[in-house]
Specification:
By secondary structure, the chain is mainly alpha-helical. The protein has a single domain (2-65), classed as Orthogonal Bundle (434 Repressor (Amino-terminal Domain)), CATH 1.10.260.40. It contains five helices and two strands; from the N terminus they run βαααααβ. Helix 2 (18-25) packs across helix 3 (29-36). The protein is globular, with a radius of gyration of 11 Å.
Length: 67
């Protein structure tokens, strides 16, 4: 199983750029890009910060996908 996320989908629905999201969370745009492409799983702290930022439940932002 692999962890998949909906960061890009939610970010785009809310018309937030990668740059704005990165600035608001105090991380780099490259980190946001890597998370969105599934190349990097965020730390627990960053995952929780994303949940608070988007105000969504865990299972709306992250889910397990069978490979």
């Amino acid at each position: 199983m692999k962890v998949t996320n909906r960061v890009r989908e939610i970010r785009q629905e809310r018309h937030i750029t990668q740059v704005k999201l990165a600035q608001d969370l105090g991380i780099t745009r490259q980190t946001i890009n890597a998370i969105e492409k599934g190349k990097y799983n965020p730390s627990l702290e960053l995952a929780l910060r994303l949940l608070v930022y988007f105000n969504v439940p865990l299972d709306h932002l992250f889910y397990l996908e069978e490979e």
